[in-house]
Amino acid sequence: MTQILPLFKREFFGYFRSPVAYVFLIVFLVVSSGLTFYLGRFFDARVASLDAFFSMQPWIYTFFISAVGMRLWAEEKRSGTWELLLTLPVRISEAVMGKFLAGWAFIATGILLTFPLMMTVGYLGDPDWGPIFTGYVGSILMAGSFLAVCSFTSALTKNQVISFVISIVINLGLVFLGWSVFTNLLAFLPLAWVDALSNFSYTTHFNGFTRGLIAFKDLVFFLSLSFVSLLLTVLVLER
Amino acid sequence: MIEVQSLHKRYGSINAVNGVSFEVNRGEILGFLGPNGAGKSTTMKMITGFLRPTSGTVLVDGLDVQEHPVPIKERIGYMPENGPIYGEMTVEEFLDFIADIRGFEDPTQKEDAIDRVCDLCRLNSVRHQSIETLSKGYKQRVGFAQAVLHDPPVLILDEPTDGLDPNQKKEVRKIIKAMAKDKAIILSTHILEEVRALCTRIIIIAKGQVIVDESPDSLMRRNKRYNALAIQFEELDLEVVKQDLKELPEVAAVEINEGAVEVYPKNKQSIEALVLKFCRENQWHISHFEMIPVSLDEVFWELTA
Predict the structure, then answer these.
(1) Would the CB atoms of B48 and A84 count as touching at under 8 Å?
(2) Residue A225 included in any domain
């Protein structure tokens, strides 16, 4: 497992070797706070919490993390560098892990850079810091699951656009399942079924975190979704 | 060192590699020849463990590549075709990354190894340039440097001199030759003179099968004009010369071609001393005497066309 570190380093700093990383970070921050203020009506709520910010995140991640994750393997396949990578003395699982962790760290950097929002609520009111802290923990965990799904779709193809589209479809589906507007459409189904379905959603499991709760089942959901997606990535690459 | 046993690779209904077997020992440089699409690269990719064979085995140092991929990859230096390298990194960053993966832990040792390959491949002037800005020749040399960084006992080079200018080609060949003593090297190429200058053994692959596995010399012997002579005489009836030369027991055939007599030996043996002596005894005055130059190209053409 020692091989993960050099892979991680190469991949993580690789993001900053191209302008894409900076464009991504800036747009991500602008969109995150923009949606919080305008769509989330941050000020109108007159509550010192980041609920408006967190509730937007599954939607933002669907697009932004797919954009980061689409290149994970597709780019290596297109440029042929995966031939070099997979003939170096690394296990495929190590390569998958190294690249995933680097992408995750990059996204986590973006998430943590939203700290001015936190400072804003701190300045304007007297927020409960507990849910804000767990919200960030949940947010980063959830981002990991989004990215792991992208890692899988990216390994399927050498075309980044295809990877992007498929990962959006899967991730959007997993967001929809827990969205009240969508579940209301399923009212014709027995309630138990709807509940079961929404158990597969990011939103369902993320809600606890934003209320200051770190529940075991939510942790298990995000970690196992990441694990399964990464396992599928390894299987696809082992071909 | 490397044992390849009845390797097959099938893509759908196409047999890219169809039962390839050979061995390479330490000290050998094996030249892989074949038309495009013959299965050279596919075979090399299976030896390096990048592609999984449909059937057959590859053993390196007695270990099966499928069962022990990591220890085998540690022993192999591989230079893929077209040098796919992370373009956004600088040469130094890239080699540093490879050194980390190759397990150089001591920083001075790592630095030494990187210095060594940069000297060897003349990369010092571009060490801090990002790879995508380099010319093809430099990129190719970065790919080569990466493959030899850990001084591997097995070296697999897919068209190592492709895209280099004649001077660089010569240099890379010199480097490969200098390293060959204690390594097993497989290289593929389209340049036949390169094989002749460099390799101790040649394998020709066509349609996924090995059709020739022998030394460059014996491959040259397959040329029908191997050791044949072309002689021009001063004022002589060539027909007479032809008849007389035919009488020699070592001579297989004599032909007249563009004013010269072409003498073909039996069993491709060397006959120039014998024929010269015979001409002198008959007091024929020779104006021009040469061994007909033979090339691998013709042999290659006959075998694969």
Answers:
(1) no
(2) yes
Query: Cβ of B86 and A18 within 8 Å?
Result: no
- Nearest CB among A3, A17, A81 relative to B85 is that of A81
Chain B contacts of A86, Cβ < 8 Å? 49-50
Q: Which residue of A has its CA nearest to B93?
A: A10
The shortest C-alpha distance from A103 to chain B (Å) reads 17
Taken in order B203, B204, B206, B212, the sign of the CA dihedral is negative
Residue A226 lies in a domain: yes
The letter for the amino acid at B95 is: L
Q: Residue B298 and residue B302: Cα distance in Å, rounded?
A: 6
Hunting for tokens 């097995």 — which residue is that? B154
- Is residue A39 included in any domain, yes or no? no
Determine the distance in angstroms separating the CA of B228 from the nearest CA of chain A, rounded to an integer: 47
Q: How far apart are CA B35 and CA B54, in angstroms?
A: 22
Is A119 part of a structural domain of the chain?
Answer: no
Q: Which residues of A touch B98 (CB under 8 A)?
A: 88
Task: Read off the amino acid at residue A115.
Answer: F
pLDDT by residue for chain A (239 residues), tens only, comes to: 578 999 999 999 999 988 889 999 999 999 998 888 888 777 777 777 888 889 889 999 999 999 999 999 999 999 999 999 999 999 999 999 999 999 999 999 999 999 998 898 889 888 899 999 999 999 999 999 999 999 999 999 999 999 999 999 999 999 988 887 887 887 788 888 888 888 889 988 999 999 988 999 999 999 999 999 999 999 999 87
Decide if B27 touches A, using CB distance below 8 A: no
Chain B residues with CB inside 8 Å of A87's CB?
Answer: 48-50, 73, 76, 78, 80
- 3-state SS class at B15: strand
Contact B158, B81 (CB under 8 A): yes
B189: distance to nearest CA of chain A, Å?
19
Contact state of B84 with A10 under an 8 Å Cβ cutoff: no
pLDDT at residue A1, as a whole number: 54
A158 is written with which tokens? 């050498």
Report how far residue A31's alpha carbon sits from residue A60's, in angstroms, rounded to the nearest whole number.
8
Q: What is chain B's mean pLDDT, rounded?
A: 89
Domains defined for chain B, CATH in brackets: 2-221 (3.40.50.300), 229-293 (3.30.70.100)
| ipTM score of complex | 0.88
Q: Quote the number of domains for chain A.
A: 1
Assigned token pair, B165: 């200018």
Whether the CB of A158 is below 8 Å from some CB of chain B: the reply is no
